Amino acid sequence: MPLETRRPGESALLLLDAVRLFEAMDVRYAVIGAMAASIHGVVRASLDADALLSVPTHRLDELEQAFRAAGFQTELRRGDPDDPIAAVLALTDSFENRVDLLVGLRGVDPALFSRTITVEFHGRPLHIVGLEDFIAMKIFAGAPQDLSDARHALAVGGDALDAALLRRTASRYGKSAAAALEKLLAEKPAK
What we know:
By secondary structure, this protein is of the alpha+beta class. A five-stranded mixed sheet has the order 1-2-5-4-3. The chain has a two-stranded antiparallel ribbon with strand order 6-7. Helix 4 packs parallel to helix 6 and helix 6 runs antiparallel to helix 7. The protein has helices at 11-25, 33-39, 60-69, 131-141, 144-157, 163-171, 175-187; strands at residues 28-32, 49-54, 73-78, 85-92, 98-105, 117-121, 124-128. The relative contact order is 0.15.
């Protein structure tokens, strides 16, 4: 499978290449990070492309081999037992475009993959993490930029937001994520 990228700054196209392999291997995924943020109304300059995979960690060696055979450069990093991410499979190409594939995010609701939003990108469907899952993940990540993204997505989501689902999803990440969500919801201006 020839890769579609032709120059630096095309990580999103590299992700499309990865999606073709996901489909061939029957791997469910959800695009997260900056690309998902842009779908949920949070536009910021980023060349990154990230996805969360619904695969057990024991399949990572198989996935890595398949990506290498398809022409990707790969690096598989497994997290420590205390790490909230079990593993990251980083994909790169000769132009230094990069896609990070996360596996085993602690607290993630497995139903996240059935709640993705499908958008067309370069004529191909991409499965983007849903609004409530996006916000909950950002709150769990907890860095200032992540909280800013969550705040903005809450404001943009407005009436489309399912507050009960958001609370259930955030609570899966633990008490501190649930409390941080309530704080952000209290900041949200009333209509």
